[in-house]
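Notes from the 1:1 (GR / supervisor)

We went over the backlog. Supervisor wanted to see one worked example end to end before approving the batch request, so GR pasted a single chain during the call. The sequence is below; no edits were made to it. Supervisor asked that the structure be written out right there so they could see what the output format looks like.
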Amino acid sequence: MSLHATTTPETQAKLDTQRRNASISSFIIAVLICSLIVSILFYIALTPYFKKQEPMVTFTPISETTEKPPRPEFKNDVQKRPPSATANASNVISPNIPSAVAITVTEMSIPALDFGGSSDFGASGGIGYNDGVNGGPRISFIPPKSSKRCSKKDRLDRLNNVGGKEAYDDQVISALRWLQKTQQDDGSWNAQGKPVAMTGLALLAYLGHCETPLSPEFGETVQNAIVYLIANGKKNGGGLATSTADRQWCYEHPIATYALAEAYTFCEAFKISIPGLKDTVIAAGNLIIGNQNINGGWAYAYQTSGGHTDSSVVCWQLQALKACKTTKLEFNGLEKSAKRGIEYLETCTAENGTVGYSGPGGRTTMTPGGSLCYQQWGKGKRSLTLKGIKWMTENNDFDYKVHGNLYMHYYASQAMINEGGSTWSKYNKKTMVNLAENQLDDGSWPKPGKAGHGMSSTHYATCLATLMMETYYRFLPSSE
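Structure output shown during the call:
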C-alpha cells in the first residue's frame, strides 16, 4: 500500500507565484550588487581627476581709512642667551594684557651658532653652500648661506674673505640701534607716508643681521614690527598696504610679504610661534600670484588686465615669491607665476643686457634689479644676465653725495657679490667703501645725492644702506 501526495491547482499556482517572485528578487539584488561594484570601481578610477582645485586669490580694494590696525602693548621677557650654545632655555614673549597675538617660544635648546670653518667661496669668488658637516650643525630650516649671518664669527669671516671690513658689522649694529629709536609705538616706521613698506624694509634689515624676537637687544623691536604687519594684513583682508586705495600699493605689498616670509623662515628655525604669521604669509603670497597681469608682469593697483606694468614693480614681486618659496609653505602656482614674471622681464631686456622700465631701452637703472632676479630664478649664467653685470661694472658712477642711487645699488650690491670674482672686487672697492664712509654718527645715512625712486626720508636711505652693508653675509633666502 503506498501513499501519493498531490497538490491542488490552487496550491500549485501559489508555489509558481512564489518561485517567480523569488527569481525576480534574486535578479534585482544581483543587478544592484553589480551596479554598486561598478560604481566603486568607477569612483576609484576617476578620483585623481577630481582633486579639489584651490581658487585663485583675487583682491578687491577697500576704502582708504586712517584707522590704525589694533595692536596690544607688548613687553619682551627674553633673557640673554647662556654662554653655552647647547644650554636649555625657556623663553616666553608675552603681552602685558591677555591677547590672541601672544608669542610663545616653546622650550628648546638654543641652536649652536658657530658653524665651523668650511669655506663657502669657490676659486672664482662665487658663493657656494655650507652643508653643515664641517665644523658643526646648522640652524634647522634656515637655508645654509642665510644661517651664516647668525654668528658674529662667521659674519666677520665673510667680511674678511670678500673685501669688507670688520668695522662694517659694527656700523650695521649702529644703524639697527638708530632704527630701534625711531620705531613708532604701534611697531611701524612711518616714513614717506608708507609705513607698511618702510616697516617691511626695516624688518628685512633686522633679519639680515639674524635679529629675531629672541634677540636680547632687538627682540622686542623685531617682534613689534612683525605683529604690526600681521595686523595690517588682517585689517586689509590679506593686502599689506598703508592704503589699498593707493594704486602704488603694489610696491608695499611685496616688500612686506618679503619681510614676513623671511621672518617666518627664521621663526620656524628658532621654534618661535607667532599667531597669524603663517596664514598672513600664505595669503600675501597667493595674492601676488592671483593678481598677476595677463602680460606676465604686475600692474599698479594689481590690475590683472591693462594698467601700467614695469620692471620695478615686477622685481619686488619676484623677490617676495622667492622668499615665499624658501618658507616651504604651499602656494598656488608659485613656480608658474615666477616663470611668467621672468618672461616679462625678458621683454624689458635689451641685447646689451640692460633692463628698461617697461621695455628695452630708455632708463637703465633697473638693470641691477633684473640681473638679480635672473640670478634668483636660475638664470644667472645666461648671456643676457652676464651682459647686464658687465654693463653695471662699466657704468658704476656711485658717489654717495653725488650719484648715490641707493635704490639701484640695493640690487647691484647683491647681483655683484653673487657674480663674485673680480667683478665683485671692483664694485666693492668703489661702492661699499664710499657707502660706509657716509654713515652719520647716530647710525643713520642721510638722503644721498641723486637718491632715485622717490627717496625722501632718512629712514628709507638707512634701510637700503643697511641692507647693502649686510650683503657680505646676508645672502638672502631669495638669492638661493
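Supervisor's comment: The chain has a mean pLDDT of 81.
Batch request approved.
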